[in-house]
Design a protein that fits this description.
With 76 residues, the chain is mostly helical. Helix content is 43%, strand content 8%. It has three helices and two strands; from the N terminus they run ββααα. Strand 1 and strand 2 form a beta hairpin. The radius of gyration is 14 Å and the shape is globular. The protein starts with 6 loop residues before the first strand and ends in an 8-residue tail after the last helix.
């Protein structure tokens, strides 16, 4: 899934959080709904302006973000 075609960052919208293009729905919000047990169908029913591909793009964005995250051990 090429999330770049569906996810955008705009400092004018939601303080620059990644959102689904053409909406004010953040990737974080969609991931939160999924983590609370919402199904894709429930999300689509409640937010008819988005598609299954948009939800997949949110998951792809989150996955890629986590893969690029660096964690460093702090020694005392």
């Amino acid at each position: 899934m090429n999330w770049q075609t569906r996810i955008t960052l705009n400092p004018e919208i939601l303080v620059g959080k990644p959102i689904i293009k053409g909406t004010r729905l953040s990737v974080e919000f969609i991931i939160d709904l999924l983590s609370q047990g919402w199904s894709t169908n429930e999300i689509l029913r409640n937010y008819p302006g988005i598609s299954t591909e948009d939800i997949q793009a949110c998951l792809s964005y989150a996955s890629e973000s986590l893969k690029s995250e660096k964690v460093y051990a702090i020694t005392v």
